[in-house]
Design brief:
Largest sheet: 7 strands, mixed
CATH architecture of the largest domain: 3-Layer(aba) Sandwich
CATH superfamily of the largest domain: Type I PLP-dependent aspartate aminotransferase-like (Major domain)
Oligomer: single chain
Number of strands: 14
CATH topology of the largest domain: Aspartate Aminotransferase, domain 2
Helix content: 40-55%
Structural class: alpha/beta
Strand order of the largest sheet: 4-10-9-8-7-5-6
Shape: globular
Order of helices and strands: HEEEHHHEHEHEHEHEHEEHHHHEHEEEHH
Bound molecules: 4'-deoxy-4'-aminopyridoxal-5'-phosphate
Length: 421
Amino acid sequence: MDEIAAQLDELRQRGLHRKLRLISGPQGARVLLDGKPVLLLCSNNYLGLADHPRVREAAADAAMRWGAGAGASRLVSGNMTIHRRLEEQLAEFKRSPTCLMFGSGYLANTGTIAALAREGDVVFSDALNHASIVDGCRLARARTFVYEHCDPDHLEWGLREAEGRGSLIVTDSVFSMDGDIAPLEEIVELAERYDARVMVDEAHATGCIGPGGAGAVADAGLEDEVDIRVGTLGKALGSYGAYVCCDDDVAEYLVNCARTLIFSTALPPPAVAGALAALEILREQPERVDRLRRNGQVMRDALDAHGVGAGPSETHIVPVVVGGAPDAMAACERALARGVFAQAIRPPTVREGTSRLRLAVMASHTRSELRSAAGVVASAVLAGGARRPERETRAEPELEPAAAPPPPRAGGVYDQLAEAA
Ligand code: PMP
């Protein structure tokens, strides 16, 4: 118990202690946060579908028709017609041979990587991949090579060193904390040359990028080249849950071997129905995707005009790097005092010295809301004495372990990489 108290104390001293804030009512452009009205600038409800009346009605109807819960894991008795229907719709939307739903993006990434990367294999993971990918690498019996963020040269070096044992390259498409996009074409080319599978996490791309919001892989025309596309239903699709788009063999293999699918209850029918309705709206109203893209640009331009940059962001995720964790928290509180909520993101989510306000615009924000929020955020950040951040964050020192270091091998390449990871 003393140890826990001491750890909490240390987190407080380092400015890394977190507390839960309370939102009243549905996620929208404006919410009540701890009882106070604010403009919400850190929700992943990118397209404004979580609070859309049709999505809410579909979830409510599904609760009446199929019940509140699925009652069991999919392999026992929890696999319902509504699960199959959403999988079919998602496979069509993503132009994928098939689609398999998981309980969440976290479960999809950990379960899929751990199932596919076996002992003797090497997984190649971008240094800024999401924590669920990092944890998938940790769970897998394979070794992990962490390549520098968006660096195909470093990836190729690792693939060469692995001498044919490279089984899986895994990357976010849109990076969750920087809003930049992975070099998918180069990654696919390397995968073909070195005979590895490619897995792309489209959590922040689905509904946000590409034709009709089909994702960054679709935008690059690489649907047939990328073996596995993971996505979540909890962000642009306004609900909860996740999916893996892949071929029939991989899907069948995952049903049999992905422990996070086998040993976890199937998604609740209301969540599935909500995502189905959201997907239908997305297909009817692709202009929501355009509005999201434009809003990202409006925010970047406005921040620039106020003297703070948004780093390498090319999307609706627009981070403003502050520096130290306490400074980022103070900036968050200053913005909040003026009615703008942009959560401070600190280590271990981002690297030490790169704590930031991660602004996430939504299609449902108006331009004037975004422009005035940019002014509030900029003055909140600059009031703390932050310098104008560099456009490139990848050269920052790497402190958070991005993946489990492989066991020591005398003189082997993985020894050096363990340091880097
Ligand atoms: N991948 C990425 C890139 C994410 O940002 C997240 C959620 N923040 C996940 C996976 C996990 O998705 P879920 O919330 O559905 O567990």
